[in-house]
Amino acid sequence: MRAADGMTGEQAAAVVEEPAASPGDERDARWRLVDLWIALGFLALAVLVVIQLWIDPNGRVLAGNDDDHGIFLFMLAHAERVIFDGAPLFYEDRFNVPVGVNMMANTSILALALPLAPVTHFLGGGVTVALLITLGLGGTAFAWYWVLSRHLVRSRLAAWIGGVWCGFAPAMVSHANGHVNFVSNYVLPFIVWQVLRLREPGRVWRGGIILGLLIVLQIFINEEALLFAALTLGIFAGSWALMARDEARLVWRRFTAGLGVAALTSGVLAGYPLWYQFFARGNYHGQPFEPTAYVTDLASLGAYARQSLAGLGVVTRRLSVSATEDNTFFGLFGLVMIIVAMVMLWRSVALRATAIAGLALLVMSLGPQLRVLGFSTRIPLPFALVSHVPVIDLVSVTRFAMVPATVAGILLAFAADRIGSYPPERRRRFWIGMTLALVPLFPKPLPVVQGDPMPAFLTEGIWRQYVPEGKTLVTVPLPDVTTGRTGQRWAALNNLDYPTPRGYFMGPANAPFDDTGSWFAPHRYTSELLWSVREYGFRPVLTDADRLRIRGDLDYWRAAVVMLVPDSRNGSLLRSVLVDVLGEPQLVGGVEIWRVNS
């Protein structure tokens, strides 16, 4: 054959012999492009939700739950110290000095915080928080879209509906107000899919090991969400087996064998961290509150969350325990469409079992007695029977409602996939209802407040001249839950370069006498005194014995310097107490400090 257009004969032959692209290849390329645009759309929506924090991530604080924003800054600072300073992985000794903090007993998100330690180190923990919340929302949506579109439904639109609901449901956007762990749910869809695949032949070892590895990864992101997934899958499997006995008899051996392999794999890899969590120093048992204190209000099912487009804060606050716990709030049309989807899919045994599992967790989230419109009734509910079961008693009850929120997204995806086989009029009504359900739930940007600016004493490293190795910098108000968030935030944004006493974390109330879980360090005379001055605004009259007790507490905290946070509530009264005990302060780097001599 004669070469043409300057090609040699060999080149021309190669062109002729190269197979032409098949229609299937072109279709796959188009679908990959669709997947890319969907992923970018989820990311853009997540950025919109977090946009006000992105404007100044190290200077702003999430207004919905600034306390939990601060605790995750601490978690990220710990991970930075692990990577850059070689600090212990499961324990932090530069916070809550001199006792320290058991990081496995806290939501330390190590699987997320360790890989992003360079971001925390070079750009600041605030940037990492904004990044994790953004990737959590968008990543969870895309993970569910991926599993649905690849394995469960035929329609990409149906998978998109499931993804956008699971990633941006009111519960997810609500938890984005500070709960980095609860928005990072992108491993869970793959855990669910791997569990379902264990019924297939030949999946015992390979599927069990993969599932075990995913479980270990989820342990280091959010154990509470893993518990929810396990309960849901257990109820699903039990319901399905009862309704499909013949098929269950065929698969139960390999299914349970695969679960055994997964348990063995995860047990070997996570055994020591879990032992450290429950038995090493700093462990605790139970919560600082009764598990039944925070429950789902039945009326919230048809209401709109404060962060939804149709939401009204005055209504939501009546029906929700906090801005980070709007765990249902499907809206009127959303609730109707969920019921419609359940009716459409009820003949499918698997989807009926899915709905049953979601309903079971919804009932659990209602607590031991029904609450309606903010009022507790005397109507008993099943949760009263299991409220004190170990592990269950560690959960804030209303969070069980995150499961039906996700189940709703799955059912809506399957219903959207199935509606294509219905008559045109039914299809039209369905899509009108779906539009009315989704549009009012469109998320609004998370509210933020400006955090207290860090003084030059910290930003310029002046503190290093005053705090020798082994000593601490004590900020007043003391770092604590709700009252000392500025001191904790500043320490965390400095990646715990200077040690600090107390703080907001989970630990024993008063070890070794009381190992009940607590949000703060055991009370001491000075912490109680300064808290009362700040909260109630009174000037205490100190005796010599009181001054000795305060100095004793400062010695216990290994204090080198006490620093008064500017513009604190009742700051002048706090200053007068410090002057009474430590004398007149120095003005250094924009703050008043007191040097402490043992």
Give your account of this protein's structure:
By secondary structure, the protein is an alpha+beta fold. It has helices at residues 9-17, 23-54, 66-85, 110-113, 117-123, 125-152, 156-168, 170-175, 180-183, 188-197, 204-219, 223-243, 245-279, 313-319, 332-345, 349-365, 402-418, 424-438, 456-459, 485-493, 525-536, 544-556, 571-582, and strands spanning 60-62, 91-92, 95-97, 101-102, 369-372, 375-380, 448-450, 472-476, 500-501, 504-510, 514-520, 559-564, 586-588, 591-595. Strands 8-12-14-13 form a four-stranded mixed sheet, with helices on one face. A two-stranded antiparallel sheet has the order 1-7. Strands 2-4 form a two-stranded antiparallel sheet. Residues 1-20 have low confidence and may be disordered.
Descriptive labels:
598 residues; alpha+beta; four-stranded mixed β-sheet; 23 helices
Number of strands: 14
Adjacency order of strands in the biggest sheet: 8-12-14-13
Average of pLDDT:
93
Q: What radius of gyration results from the CA coordinates?
A: 28 Å
| CA distance, first residue to last residue | 97 Å
Contiguous runs where pLDDT drops below 50 for at least 5 residues: 1-20
Strand content: 5-15%
Oligomer: single chain
Could you write a compact summary of the structure shown?
By secondary structure, the protein is an alpha+beta fold. The protein has 2 domains: 60-441, no CATH class; 456-595, no CATH class. It contains 23 helices and 14 strands.
Detail the topology: elements first, then pairings.
Layout: H1 9-17, H2 23-54, E1 60-62, H3 66-85, E2 91-92, E3 95-97, E4 101-102, H4 110-113, H5 117-123, H6 125-152, H7 156-168, H8 170-175, H9 180-183, H10 188-197, H11 204-219, H12 223-243, H13 245-279, H14 313-319, H15 332-345, H16 349-365, E5 369-372, E6 375-380, H17 402-418, H18 424-438, E7 448-450, H19 456-459, E8 472-476, H20 485-493, E9 500-501, E10 504-510, E11 514-520, H21 525-536, H22 544-556, E12 559-564, H23 571-582, E13 586-588, E14 591-595
Parallel strand pairs: 3-9, 8-12
Antiparallel strand pairs: 1-7, 2-4, 5-6, 10-11, 12-14, 13-14
